[in-house]
Amino acid sequence: MEQAVATGFNNQGISGDERRVWKxxxxxxxxxxxxxxxxxxxxxxxxxxxYQLLLWLAPIVFIVLGIELMVVxxxxxxxxYKLQYNWIAVWFVGFIGAGALMLAALLSSGVLEEVNQAxxxxxxxxxxxxxxxVQLDSIEKVIVSSSIGYQLERHSALDEVxxxxxxxxxxxRSIQLxxxxxxxxxxxxxxxxVFIQGIEYERNLFAHTGLRGQLILNVPEHVxxxxx
Length: 228
Description:
membrane, transmembrane, 34% helix, alpha/beta, 5 helices, transmembrane helix, 4-stranded mixed sheet, 10 strands
């Protein structure tokens, strides 16, 4: 318990104004400061972040303050001590507790993680080389639909559609393109539909993220190409 401040006593007992003063909240604030210091110290050598450790501290702070209030308002305690509220300490403990509750809400919603990842967002790039074989004898027209900018090139003696180039994007980590395809084709009669689609990656709400492409679409020379 906290160290009390003596205001006066006699040999017959402590009563009236001679009771020692107990400032409610000082003990709880001291434990809160110790807990905050331990949380930040532990985060330096543990994988757990200080924010997650502070979430564990919040209920302990309320429990300690509640126990202190129950003890100091007992009849036996009131005979020995005169109570005073340390409003700065009470406000501090309440502020820490309310802040921890808000922090828990942000963690559960994912907003805090988004903010943390925003500081690690940087421009990245991925090299693209994809091929699709086609049946030239049955194709009269190629219809291209793309969500990314590209440049069209025609080549003689080419029996396939080739997509080459580089994609630029902003993200906190690199994307593995082994399971994603940008180039897809589908033949309907004598029409060949070519689709160039974007890649899936995690975008951040608090940082500028976009997808830009410097792509070249290579098609056979003799076919008609329509871009939509």
